[in-house]
Amino acid sequence: MKKNQDLPLIGKSVALFDNFTYKGEDDFYVSNPLSDKECFYNPILPGWYSDPSVCTNGDGDYFLVTSTFSYFPGVPIFHSIDLVNWKQIGHVLNRPSQLVKLEGQGISGGIFAPAISYNPKNKTYYMITTNVGAGNFFVKTQNPFGEWSEPIMLPSIIGIDPSFFFDEDGKAYIVNNDDAPDNKPEYSGHRTIRVQEFDVNTDKTVGPRKVLINKGACPADKPIWIEGPHMYKINGKYFLMAAEGGTAEWHSEVIFRGDSPMGKFTPWKNNPILTQRNLDSERPNPVTCAGHADLIQSKEGDWWAFFLACRPINNKFENLGRETFAMPVKWSEDGFPYMTQGEDKIPMTVKRKGVERDSIVTFGNFEANDEFDEATLGLTWMTLRTPATDLYSLTETPGYLTLKCAPVSATEKKTPAFICRRMQHHKFTCSTRMLFDPSNHAEKAGLLLFKDETHQYFLSVGKEGSDKLVSLSQIGESGNKTLASQKIDKDAMAIDLRVVSTGATYEFFYKTGEEKWELLCKGIDAGYLSTAMAGGFTGTTIGMYATKNSHIKENIK
Fold first, then answer.
1. What is the domain count for the chain?
2. Coil, strand, or helix at residue 97?
3. What CA–CA distance (Å, rounded) separates 290 from 395?
4. What is the DSSP letter of 315?
5. N- to C-terminal Cα separation, the chain
């Protein structure tokens, strides 16, 4: 926070943000401190980091990517040398040319289930994914710390969730989720896993596409949504692993084994190899919806699984989305990898022997602060669908994030003036200091809590007549509903805004100048921003937002 200096001049129709703080305060981490330096918490990437995929170059470098749907930039990439301490090094898709046709897609459209792979034959990393508005494509690089190529489309790969497999003989394959045979599903959710050979020299698929898995691990049970496949070669055998059961509580991971990448693949008799669907729903600290896994063998030889799961608050709902968990892989006597069997619980604390956690970690109750002193946004910040660089600046007023009051609302499938980050804890405190002088009743700026186009809370400063107001609005399909409003000093330029999440509810505060924090309202239902209420594939984000969108219907409570 800038102190002991004159406030900068505030331009017309812009808001200046001096700082942003986020502090996690989850009870589990407070009540369960890590016992030693070799322990770490699950989820290893808390908050909405879904559909994790991992790879290694075999020399001790590990890379992990996750989905971003309709946010920009796309596909965060993390690096580790020990599978425990992860650091974000950038985004795979960081240019508009790599993220086409996101405008017009809902927040749960866009980029699905990226899969990252390394081909030792040409020392090249590949990231393959689905843009649901444009098709399947991949990008590649020999330096994952740098830039990735432009998208290379794969018109023959129909469906979602493609993944590369590079065999020891130099051949390559793509496996993915596809329609039922002959596009004639026998029931809702009937899908297949298919394979096609890929020519690394021409970057094109070759030969026929073949169905490897029809329906799922146990076709007689009519399993739904076999998806997210990965292929591995282990001890001379080929393994095909996939998620099954949909993305809710019945989610799971299943595995098959064969003698060739083109099949036949036989399911393991003890599938699923990962799920929490059979556990008591009233258990404490539940982890649910586990699946969509990827396996990795470390340089030391041990095997680990990275997968998504959810942590519902009070066994009811969660706003954090699907998070990335990690746990060691076990091996059955008949040679199959698995993570859970029966009533095994996914552990919330894990240890990797010989690895100490760093002083800066991605898990537990951490704090993040941004003074907006850099010329570019940090890697945790995102916008919707495009870079939005015409709507914000970090150099126009140095030391501040300048946001234009854009004539676009976050309810539209466009790009509003919204700079956000993931919520990563059930309980947290988030605050910002904003300099803002609205010109008319349509201009508002403040903190937006965003689940999707029709589920939002907006803690804003605006104008009504000659009065300046701080308000909380609930934004939904039928428009805005003002939940609370309070007049503030119309000459106050600097306004502090704070959101406190208690898990099941939110509390909203404000202050002007050096005054104490004033409660605007409390007991606001956090479930309104949950997947249980809104659906979709993303978690909730929070950040700075400015608009002069006057066509949104306002309903005063």
1. 2
2. helix
3. 43
4. T
5. 35
Q: Each residue of 6-24: pLDDT tens digit?
A: 677 787 899 999 999 999 9
Q: Which amino acid is at 401?
A: L
Q: pTM here? A: 0.96
Q: Which helix (H) or strand (E) holds 29?
A: helix 27-31
Rounded Cα–Cα distance for residues 31 and 33 (Å): 6
- Mind listing the pLDDT tens digit for each residue in 383-440? 999 999 999 999 999 999 999 999 999 999 999 999 999 999 999 999 999 999 999 9
Per the structure, the complete domain to which residue 476 belongs is given by 14-22+365-556
Distance CA 401, CA 75 (A): 24
The active-site residue, picked from 26, 51, 244, 452, is: 51
> Is residue 395 left, alpha or beta, with left meaning phi > 0 and alpha meaning psi from -120 to 50?
alpha
- H or E element that contains 234: strand 227-234
Is 51 annotated in the active site?
yes
The arithmetic mean of pLDDT across residues 305-322, rounded, is 94
| Calpha distance 146→151 (Å, rounded) | 16
CA angle 494, 500, 502 (to 5 degrees): 175
Report the CATH number at residue 272.
2.115.10.20
Closest CA to 137 of 117, 119, 114, 121: 114
Which of 68, 112, 522, 40 has its CA nearest to residue 328? Answer: 40
In the set 18, 161, 227, 453, the catalytic residue is 227
Quick one: 346 and 399 in the same domain? no
Nearest Cα residue to 228 out of 218, 213, 207: 213
